[in-house]
């Protein structure tokens, strides 16, 4: 199918703008960058993807009838585009800390083609057509797997029967920039084949954007000021702190807190000495000099000595401990501990009416439907021994929860009679808490008696590379299994993969490099698969299969038959009896057909009470069973 890229008609004041269209779905993306550095020294990229109701021919259903806050879908799509931040800027531009904003505006949606992949390609085109320096362009496609056949950019109807939902972003020379996937427990070889096919098709999009840039004759701006550490200060910091930092990073007796404290102590001492020797330099140059030294030491230990700071070899897992049935009153619970990452997961059952309801706009724009399985992830500040605001869910928590939810959803039976809510609260964090949530959530589901098809485990794979100073090509690399927080911080990749013993259910790849070869991706999948199976063996020692029955404290669902002749008494005038039943007993009643009702009770005792109530209001000793369609003689005794 044909994807169209255009520019020069809309939003011409922006540094760069592009409109991407597939079928009748169109997205406009703008890129604007400041010319002066920001005060804070971090990668300043802001991405905002917005779905407009008008694009679907609808009016917002809220009280004000206008677009308000961002929906979950908008936030998750923004995060996918933002995951390309390490690729978006050129090396010099990223070191200038100049704020860049990418806005994605949905212009029209046809209900056939999803706009999220178009937004990624639009961001690539907008940046390529601007004067903002960057490493692009990139291209992105969605890959589906229907009846064993890979489909590029499948329609929404095709996706409904697809066993794979894979978004691939690729760079020139068939480099992989980003991967995001949900899979119905597909085999590793099928998954790897889909990635290769996806990367191949991204090259066509890249060539199209390059042709557009050539036609426009784009000239990139020159960056004036770079926030880099002077070589002289770096060498001095190395002489002052090398041995001390090396001793900390090679002392495996340290845990997260003690290691951080030791490094911070060395940092403060070194910075004071550097300030005395270089009194005229700016503070960030001294701070960055220490960062460069500590990062180089950490990475070289892995690259040259094959040593990790906690004493493990490159493919070893941290110690794993599992516990289930933490609290008897909970429907299901599990504690998953991997090293110093600790996650408490709970399972709660409720009626089908408690499922997540999708509003009309989200359904029309994104095809999102109601769902009766959800996973909510919480990351309180005490998990890293910090003080912070405890407010509503932030974007990071939403993204991590969505990943763990996608990992577990394929094992949930479709005909399960309850809505399932899994909560994952991170109690301690030292890397890969989202994959720990998938492991803990799987155990909690089995503890609750959910007949899952198999257990799920997840792991994060890291990457340390040595790149050429001339062209940035990767000359040497090491893959790390089950990374720590510090290995994520100093490393080049966070490769999260979850699945069962049979196959893969979810994948998310976040890179700090401008792309990696497919070969490294395949090796990472292989290494993650081996680790996943090892984790599953440990989990199975705690709970190998779902409990045969749900807990006594859990909810109950029953189907009752109410004849048409008794329906009026059962419901009551103005639904009085039905409302009274639900208020007194706490049950939820749903009508299935003319004579059948589903009754959900939060506890067995509530169901017993509801049965008695229904029996009482429906009993009639004088009742005569009348034949439908027959003619009877009767006496009128009262007219109301």
UniProtKB/TrEMBL annotation:
Cell membrane found in the keyword field: no
Keywords of this entry: Cytoplasm, Nucleotidyltransferase, RNA-binding, Transferase
Domain Exoribonuclease phosphorolytic: 1-133, 136-200, 317-451
GO MF entries: 3'-5'-RNA exonuclease activity; polyribonucleotide nucleotidyltransferase activity; RNA binding
All residue ranges annotated as the K Homology domain in the record: 558-616
Pfam families the record matches: KH_1, PNPase, RNase_PH, RNase_PH_C
Residue ranges constituting the Polyribonucleotide nucleotidyltransferase RNA-binding domain according to the UniProt record: 235-313
InterPro entries registered for this protein in UniProt: ExoRNase_PH_dom1, ExoRNase_PH_dom2, ExoRNase_PH_dom2_sf, KH_dom_type_1, KH_dom_type_1_sf, PNPase, PNPase/RNase_PH_dom_sf, PNPase_PH_RNA-bd_bac/org-type
Top-level taxon: Eukaryota
GO biological processes: mitochondrial mRNA catabolic process; mitochondrial RNA 3'-end processing
GO (cellular component) term, any one: cytosol
PANTHER family: POLYRIBONUCLEOTIDE NUCLEOTIDYLTRANSFERASE (PTHR11252), POLYRIBONUCLEOTIDE NUCLEOTIDYLTRANSFERASE 1, MITOCHONDRIAL (PTHR11252:SF0)
UniProt protein name: Uncharacterized protein
Protein's organism: Cariama cristata (Red-legged seriema)
């Amino acid at each position: 199918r044909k994807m169209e890229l255009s520019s020069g008609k809309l939003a011409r004041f922006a540094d760069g703008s592009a409109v991407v269209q597939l079928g009748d779905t169109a997205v406009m993306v703008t890129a604007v960058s400041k010319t002066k550095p920001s005060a804070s020294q971090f990668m300043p990229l802001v991405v905002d993807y917005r779905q407009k109701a008008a694009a679907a021919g609808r009016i917002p259903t809220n009280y004000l009838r206008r677009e308000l806050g961002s929906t979950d879908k908008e936030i998750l799509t923004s995060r996918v585009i933002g995951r390309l931040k390490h690729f978006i800027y050129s090396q010099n531009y990223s070191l200038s800390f100049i704020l860049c904003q990418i806005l994605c505006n949905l212009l029209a949606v046809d209900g056939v083609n999803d706009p999220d992949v178009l937004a990624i390609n639009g961001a690539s085109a907008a940046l390529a057509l601007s004067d903002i320096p960057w490493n692009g362009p990139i291209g992105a496609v969605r890959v589906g797997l229907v009846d064993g056949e890979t489909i590029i950019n499948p329609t929404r109807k095709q996706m409904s029967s697809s066993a794979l939902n894979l978004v691939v972003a690729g760079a020139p020379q068939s480099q992989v920039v980003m991967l995001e996937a949900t899979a119905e427990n597909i085999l590793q070889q099928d998954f790897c084949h889909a990635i290769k096919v996806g990367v191949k098709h991204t090259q066509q999009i890249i060539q199209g954007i390059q042709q557009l840039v050539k036609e426009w004759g784009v000239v990139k701006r020159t960056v004036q000021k770079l926030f880099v550490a002077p070589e002289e200060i770096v060498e001095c910091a190395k002489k002052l702190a090398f041995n001390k930092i090396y001793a900390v990073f090679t002392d495996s007796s340290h845990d997260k807190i003690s290691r951080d404290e030791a490094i911070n102590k060395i940092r403060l001492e070194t910075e004071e000495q550097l300030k005395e020797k270089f009194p005229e330099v700016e503070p960030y140059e001294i701070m960055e000099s220490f960062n460069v030294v500590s990062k180089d030491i950490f990475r070289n230990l892995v690259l040259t000595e094959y040593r990790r700071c906690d004493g493990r070899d490159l493919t070893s897992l941290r110690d794993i401990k599992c516990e289930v049935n933490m609290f008897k009153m909970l429907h299901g619970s599990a504690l998953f501990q991997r090293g110093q990452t600790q996650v408490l997961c709970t399972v709660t059952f409720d009626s089908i009416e408690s499922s997540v309801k999708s509003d009309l706009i989200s359904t029309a724009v994104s095809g999102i439907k109601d769902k009766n399985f959800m996973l909510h992830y919480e990351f309180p500040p005490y998990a890293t021994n910090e003080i912070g605001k405890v407010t509503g869910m932030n974007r990071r928590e939403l993204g991590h929860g969505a990943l763990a939810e996608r990992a577990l959803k394929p094992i949930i039976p479709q005909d399960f009679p309850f809505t399932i809510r899994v909560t994952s609260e991170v109690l301690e964090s030292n890397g890969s808490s989202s994959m720990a949530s998938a492991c803990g959530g799987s155990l909690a589901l089995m503890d609750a008696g959910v007949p899952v098809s198999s257990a799920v485990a997840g792991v994060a794979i890291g990457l340390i590379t040595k790149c050429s100073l001339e062209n940035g090509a990767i000359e040497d690399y090491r893959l790390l299994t089950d990374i720590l927080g510090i290995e994520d911080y100093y490393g080049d990749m966070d490769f999260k993969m979850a699945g069962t013993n049979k196959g893969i259910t979810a994948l998310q790849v976040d890179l700090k490099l401008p792309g990696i070869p497919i070969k490294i991706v395949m090796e990472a999948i292989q290494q993650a698969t081996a680790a996943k199976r090892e984790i599953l063996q440990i989990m199975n020692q705690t709970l190998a299969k779902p409990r045969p029955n749900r807990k006594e404290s859990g909810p109950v669902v029953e189907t009752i038959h109410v004849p048409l002749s008794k329906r009026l008494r059962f419901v009551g005038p103005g639904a009085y009896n039905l409302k009274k039943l639900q208020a007194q007993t706490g049950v939820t009643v749903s009508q299935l057909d003319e004579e059948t009702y589903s009754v959900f009770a939060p506890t067995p005792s509530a169901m017993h009470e509801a049965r008695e109530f229904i029996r009482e209001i429906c009993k009639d000793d004088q009742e005569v069973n009348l034949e439908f369609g027959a003619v009877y003689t009767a006496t009128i005794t009262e007219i109301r």
